[in-house]
Amino acid sequence: MKKIVMALLCTAAFSNASFAQKMDDEPDLQMIARIKQEGFNNSKAMETLFQLTDVNGPRLTGSPGMKKAEQWARQQLSDWGLANAAIEPWGSFGKGWQVEKCYAAMTAPYYQQLIAVPKAWTPGTNGLIKGNAISVKIDAAADMEKYKGMLAGKIIVLEPGANTETKVNFKPDGKRLTDEELEKMDVDPHADDEIDNLPRRNNNKNQSPNPRAAAMGLRAQMDSFFIAEKAIAVVRLVRGTMGTVFTSNGASRAIDAKPVLPELEMGQEHINRIIRLLDAGKEVSLEMETKTTFYTDSIENNVVAEIPGTDKNLKSELVMLGGHMDSWHGATGTTDNGTGVTVAMEAVRILKALDVKPRRTIRIVLWSGEEQGLLGSRGYVKSHFGDKDSMKFKPEYDKVSAYYNLDNGAGKIRGIYLQSNDMVRPIFESWLEPFKDMGASTVTIRNTGSTDHISFDDIGIPGFQFIQDPLEYGSRTHHSNMDSYDRVNSNDLKQASVIMASFVYNTAMRDEKLPRKPMPVAKK
Ligand SMILES: [Zn+2]
Fold first, then answer.
1. CA angle (425, 431, 435) in 5-degree steps
2. Looking at the DSSP assignment, which residues form a beta bridge with residue 103?
3. CA 135 / ligand 1 centre spacing (Å)
4. CB-based contact 380:88 (threshold 8 Å)
5. How far, in Å, from the CA of 248 to the mean position of ligand 1?
6. How far is the CA of 449 from the centre of ligand 1 (A)?
7. Ligand 1 center to residue 370 CA distance, Å?
8. CA 470 to ligand 1 centroid distance, Å
9. Which string of DSSP letters, residue by residue, matches 329-375?
10. What CA–CA distance (Å, rounded) separates 92 from 197?
């Protein structure tokens, strides 16, 4: 019956664009079945994740841990048979930094070991330091006056903001997207952006006055004041309960950064206890020893490898995939973004194991500097494809079909963001068809931000991020001291890997490159 209909359509010289596209984008089910078989039965995803996180450790950009991970990833990709595996510099970054030691405790009114993590790019204590705690609350520069002459030899306990009030948490930490939430993303592009429960960068830079710049300006004044008053260290809490501490952005990593005191971010139940005791007029003594090392000659890199294309007309074209390998330092950066890196690596491992002969070249890139503002991917895109400010492009700009990114935690894939590219909707709907029973079917026109596909999207190269179940990303793991291997579900990782492999394969085999959105306009 299907054949007859098709024959009729053909003899009638029916030329319908969406029909033609549908034919082109019908996934090769035999290949999809092989990808699923390799990805589920011979998965190396958890082993890759173990090597990257437990074995390698934290990977703050510019740290020796990050450099070690780059070496490992290059070698692993090469061992799997990928071509042109290389560590590719994108530039300098300021100072590298790594924690060598961290101990903090309360010694009076009684002994209590404290949960605390050094704030990135702060100095160590230079041996064990001891001092009485003083609670300090500064909301504006004028508040500093009242602490004049009171801080010498003290450890400053900055009072947490209102969002860190103690309360019993009745919400489960882990969450999957419900059908209703996915439906909402599907039909209403402007529906509540917080549905996916993702932590988002504070993007109000253009607001005037800029609250973030104001807060940083005040903080710089406070740092100078604390040093002038001869305080010896700072502890504070930004967010986190029940042993979880979310690291906030670091102190300045600039080579000529002004000096700051050693500073630790502390768990809520511990810092609040200290503050309650101080408020009640009790004396609280603290001791701590932290050691951090700075690296001033740091050059930062991305890791690149390829499965070369085989079609003589298309092999110069590219399908790209990746995730960022850099992390924060409080744990092993497993869900941000060890899982994204693992999925990208596992996807190319699967394709290599199946000995696919892609028409276009498949290129994996593992980024660094993402946490400091997509620096690795921006650097890469600028040097290979084009400059987003001038909108001047390199010859390779026209060669990229798509870039696929994964960086929203450890959750399985539930669909994909079209990033406002209506033309790819029928293609992606067709490509997700074989994964419906695994929970991945939503294609939303929405944009999602805050990660490396934006570097491509900014200059008009199709760049996509998949929709993922949040699991414990917002509640526990994202930038925290609990971002560990234990928080990953192996089935989620396998599912994401086979979908990533399939999308990359389909893009590599398609007759045409993926359609692009209308060109963004050059900034004046
Ligand atoms: Zn990330």
1. 120
2. 289
3. 33
4. yes
5. 14
6. 11
7. 7
8. 13
9. SSS--IIIIIHHHHHHHHHHHHHHHTT---SSEEEEEEESSGGGTSH
10. 33
Summarised one tens digit per residue, pLDDT across range 465-496 is 999 999 999 999 999 999 999 999 999 999 99
Strand duo 463-468 + 400-405: pairing = parallel
Assessment of whether the complete model's pTM goes beyond 0.90: yes
Place of tokens 């830079």: 205
* Residue 453 structure tokens: 């596909």
**Cα 127 to ligand 1 centre (Å):** 34
Q: How many whole angstroms from 26 Cα to the centroid of ligand 1?
A: 32
212 CA → ligand 1 middle, Å: 20
91 alpha carbon – ligand 1 mean position (Å):
20
- Determine whether 399 is exposed, middle or buried from the number of CB atoms within 10 Å of its CB (0-12, 13-18, 19+): middle
- The secondary structure of residue 424, as a DSSP letter, is G
**Cα(324) to centroid of ligand 1, in Å?**
6
Q: For residue 384, which of 307, 468, 456 has the smallest C-alpha distance?
A: 456
Spatial CB neighbours of 65, under 8 Å, sequence gap ≥ 6: 56, 57, 58, 59, 98, 329
Q: How many CB atoms lie within 10 A of CB 437?
A: 7
Cα separation, 427 vs 152, whole angstroms: 65
How many angstroms does the Cα of residue 10 sit away from the middle of ligand 1?
Answer: 48
Separation of CA 412 and ligand 1 centre (Å)? 15
Q: How far is the CA of 323 from the centre of ligand 1 (A)?
A: 8
Integer Cα distance of 237 and 218 in angstroms: 17
What spacing in Å lies between the alpha carbon of 511 and ligand 1's midpoint? 33
Dist. CA 328 → ligand 1 center (Å): 9
404 touches 424 (CB < 8 A): no
Distance CA 160, CA 157 (A): 9
Distance CA(520)–CA(463), nearest Å, equals 14
pLDDT tens per residue, range 333-383: 999 999 999 999 999 999 999 999 999 999 999 999 999 999 999 999 999
